[in-house]
C-alpha cells in the first residue's frame, strides 16, 4: 500500500458496496474553480463516467422553477438523485456539481472540494459573464468556505479533501494524485 497516498487521503480506503469494482468521486466547489476541466480529464484517463449535474439537469429538464434574481433555473434535487441512482451503484462515476449536500452519502468513496484564490476566481467568473450579486455571492461562497463546510457536514470528514485550483500546475498535480488514488483503491478493493 502506498503510504504517501494513504497519508494524502486518509479515511478513503472504506470497503466498497458489494458490486462496486471502481470508486465514485464527487468533485465540488464554487463555480469557476475547475471542476469540469478536472473531471473530464480524469474520465479521459480512467474510462470512468463523467457526469456534470448542470448538463444532466438541462438535458432532462430537472428543474423546479427559475430564480429571477440569479437568472438561472432552480435544480430539482430529488429528480437529479432519482436520475443518478442506478448509474452510481456500479461505481466508476465522477460527479461534478457546485453543491453537494443533497447527494446520498453512500454514493461517494471520496469527495474533492476544489478551492481557488479570490483574484483568480473573480477573473474566471467575470469571463463567464457573472456580474453583480451573482458574482459577489460566488466570491463570498469561496471566501467563507461554504462548499467545503457543506461537504464536511454531508460526508464523513475523512473522505473530504480540499485541493488548490489556481494555476495549470495545480490541475496537473490534482489529476496525478487522483489517478494514483483511483489505482490504489482499485488494487485494494478488487
Write the layout of secondary structure elements.
Layout: H1 3-8, E1 25-28, H2 35-46, E2 49-52, H3 53-60, E3 63-67, E4 72-75, H4 77-88, E5 93-96, E6 110-115, H5 118-127, H6 132-143, H7 146-154, E7 160-164, H8 168-189
Parallel strand pairs: 1-5, 1-6, 2-5, 6-7
Antiparallel strand pairs: 3-4
Architecture overview:
This protein has a 5-stranded parallel β-sheet with strand order 2-5-1-6-7, with helices on both faces. Helix 2 packs across helix 8 and helix 5 (118-127) runs antiparallel to helix 6. The longest helix is centred in the last third of the chain and has 22 residues, at 168-189. The relative contact order is 0.23. The protein has 8 helices and 7 strands. The protein is an alpha/beta fold and 190 residues long. The protein starts with a helix and ends with a helix. Strand 3 (63-67) and strand 4 form a beta hairpin. The model is unreliable at 12-16 (pLDDT under 50). It is globular. The protein has helices at 3-8, 35-46, 53-60, 77-88, 118-127, 132-143, 146-154, 168-189; strands at 25-28, 49-52, 63-67, 72-75, 93-96, 110-115, 160-164.
The secondary-structure class comes to: alpha/beta
| Main sheet attributes: strand count, strand direction, barrel closure | 5 strands, parallel
General shape: globular
The helix fraction, in percent, is 40-55%
Mean pLDDT: 92
| Proportion in β-strands | 15-25%
Strand order of the largest sheet: 2-5-1-6-7
Count the helices. How many?
8
Rg over CA atoms: 16 Å
- Could you give the order of the helices and strands? HEHEHEEHEEHHHEH
Amino acid at each position: 500500500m502506498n503510504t504517501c497516498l494513504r497519508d494524502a487521503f486518509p479515511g478513503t480506503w472504506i470497503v466498497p458496496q458489494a458490486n462496486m469494482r471502481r470508486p465514485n468521486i464527487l468533485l465540488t466547489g464554487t463555480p469557476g474553480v475547475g471542476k469540469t476541466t478536472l473531471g473530464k480529464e480524469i474520465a479521459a484517463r480512467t474510462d470512468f463516467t463523467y457526469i456534470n449535474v448542470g448538463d444532466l439537469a438541462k438535458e432532462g429538464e430537472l428543474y423546479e422553477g427559475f430564480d429571477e434574481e440569479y437568472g438561472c433555473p432552480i435544480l430539482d434535487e430529488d429528480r437529479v438523485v432519482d436520475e443518478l441512482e442506478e448509474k452510481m451503484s456500479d461505481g466508476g462515476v465522477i460527479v461534478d456539481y457546485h453543491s453537494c449536500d443533497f447527494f446520498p452519502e453512500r454514493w461517494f468513496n471520496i469527495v474533492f472540494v476544489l478551492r481557488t484564490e479570490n483574484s483568480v476566481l473573480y477573473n474566471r467568473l467575470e469571463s463567464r459573464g457573472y456580474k453583480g450579486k451573482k458574482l459577489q455571492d460566488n466570491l463570498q461562497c469561496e471566501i467563507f468556505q461554504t462548499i467545503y463546510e457543506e461537504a464536511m457536514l454531508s460526508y464523513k470528514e475523512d473522505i473530504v479533501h480540499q485541493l488548490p485550483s489556481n494555476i495549470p500546475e495545480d490541475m496537473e498535480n490534482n489529476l496525478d494524485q487522483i489517478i494514483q488514488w483511483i489505482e490504489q483503491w482499485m488494487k485494494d478493493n478488487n
